[in-house]
Design goal:
This protein has 181 residues and is mostly helical. It has helices spanning 2-15, 23-46, 49-79, 85-162, 169-180. It contains five helices and no strands.
Amino acid sequence: MPEETRNDKGARQGKEEIFMPDFSDVWKEMYFRMEEVWANAVKEVISTKTFVDYLDKVLEYNLNTEKLVRQSIDKYMEHAPVPSKKDVARVAELVISMEEKIDVLEFEFMRNLETMAESLLKMINLQEKMQTEIASLKEDIGFIKQRLETMEKKEEAKAEPEKGERKTRASRKNEKKDENE
């Protein structure tokens, strides 16, 4: 008997096994069925005029709320010592404008400085040319004086035998210089 009971227990245990379904398969099946149902339901709701009117009201409400918030912030910023976004933007525009003016002034200054430098270089070159010309003129004048003096001496030498007391130009010039001093 004990053997039969064992066999009966084994048969009963084989028949009484608990069946456990695969939950992931069940979940997938339920998800896909519900997805289709919900998609159809949402399409029906979205396509109605009531839903569109509702969206318009929500949008209008949000825009009005945003407008009120913006106005409130602007009023607060007028009285608060904190600069608003508009104030910062205005200051930024002024800074950019000032930078542009500084750039223009810097460009003009550099251009004027270059022009002045070029003019100074031209003046230096002109001055050097003038100095060389003056030096050559002094040499020419010195040469002319020598020639004039030699010519006067020759004239004096010719004039002395004719008139002994006649004064030469050079001697008259020397006398005038002595009188002026």
